[in-house]
Write a structure and sequence with these properties.
By secondary structure, the protein is an alpha+beta fold. It has helices at 14-18, 31-35, 91-108, 129-141, 146-149; strands at 2-3, 22-26, 47-52, 59-64, 68-73, 76-82, 113-119, 144-145, 160-162, 167-169, 172-176, 182-188, 201-206. It has a domain at 83-206: Endonuclease/exonuclease/phosphatase (Deoxyribonuclease I, Chain A), CATH 3.60.10. α3 runs parallel beside α4.
Amino acid sequence: MLQEHWLTPANISRFEDEFFTYICFSSSATNAAVESGVLYGRPFGGVMTLVSRRPQKCTQVVCAAERFVVVIVRDVLVINVYLPCAGTHDRLLICEDVLSMLSEYIHSYNGYTVLMGEDFNCDLNVVNSANDLTKEFMVDLGLVRCDSLFAENGPFLSTFYAETRSLQSTIDYFLVGDKDAVYSFHVLDPDSKPVRSSSYLYVLQMLR
C-alpha cells in the first residue's frame, strides 16, 4: 500500500511496467491540476495498492478514489487511505467525507476481514479534532491498531520527521477488524531519519 505517489493519470501505468508481478489498483490526485493546464507545484496525494498476481482470480477492486483504494483479496477487505494533513483547506470536512464513505464500504462487505493501511496525517496519541474523528471511526467499526497489538516488540518508529523544527510523530498506521487474524507486525526504517518526512516499510503477516 503506497500513499503520495504524485503520479498523473498518464503515468500510473509505470508501476505495472516496473512491478510486473503485481496488479496495481490506483488513483491519482492530479486530475484537476492536469485538466486546468500545466502541472506545477506539489500535487500531494495519490494512493496505490499492489497485489501479487498469484491470487489474481480472488482479487477485485471495489473502489479507487482520489484519497482511497478499496480492494478485496480472498476474504480480506484491503483499504488504502490518505487523509489530508494539517493546514489543508476544509480538512475536517474531507476527513468526515472519506471516513463516512469507508464506513459504508466496510458495512457493505460485512463478513470480510478488514485490513486498513493508511497515512492519517495525524498522531492518534494526541487529542485534537481530526484525531478524534479518526478514533471515533475506529471505535464505531471495531478497528484496532496493529502497533498496539504488538506493543511487546518495543516502541515503534516515529514515521514523520521535520528535523529543521525538531519535530517527530507517528502518523501512519495499520488497522484491523480482527486482531486474531494478525500473526506479526513490524515497522522497518530503510532510510535513517530522512530530512523532511518518511519512507518506511511495514511488514504485516496475517493468518491466511
